[in-house]
Design a protein that fits this description.
alpha+beta; 5-stranded antiparallel beta sheet; two-stranded antiparallel sheet
């Protein structure tokens, strides 16, 4: 069973509200490309690989840039569809939360199932609560995540 941490911390409450709130899908690859270009790299993003410990510090702008570039390559390589449809944001013009589903663990990411999978990665402008995955993060995804910022 998946769970979102509960807390009396207002920041975690805000994260939970965003996670469970209304989200908009980036349906086409062109829409995703355009969306990546609108994200302010200096806005104070927490980059979270669900299954790892949540970050306690915001990422530097160069880390956000690297994350977006590498994530875009991973999604286009591993999501074998003519459409995107696995990236969601609370606001397409000025997002505070972006959920990115792992192409290798989709289930029913649109939320129409009783227990939709958690996203693989989250970009959040509020500190994230720890999310509990039902499954262990695959070794290849752990290595990808760990290598992403090993150059820092």
């Amino acid at each position: 069973m998946q769970s979102v941490a509960t807390s009396i911390d207002p920041a975690l409450d805000e994260f939970n509200r965003l996670m469970n709130g209304r989200l908009f899908s980036l349906l086409s690859w062109d829409q995703l490309t355009e969306f990546w270009g609108t994200i302010n790299r200096d806005a104070g993003w927490y980059l979270y690989a669900v299954g790892e410990a949540p970050p306690s510090l915001v990422a530097a702008s160069d880390q956000v840039e690297r994350f977006i570039a590498e994530m875009d390559m991973l999604l286009r390589r591993d999501h074998h569809e003519s459409y995107c449809g696995i990236v969601y944001a609370d606001n397409l013009d000025s997002p505070s939360l972006i959920k990115i589903y792992d192409p290798n663990n989709l289930g029913v990411s649109c939320g129409s199932s009783k227990h939709p999978p958690l996203p693989g990665w989250i970009m959040s402008r509020v500190i994230p609560a720890e999310l509990q995955q039902e499954h262990v993060l695959p070794a290849n995804r752990k290595r990808w995540w760990q290598n992403l910022f090993s150059q820092d």
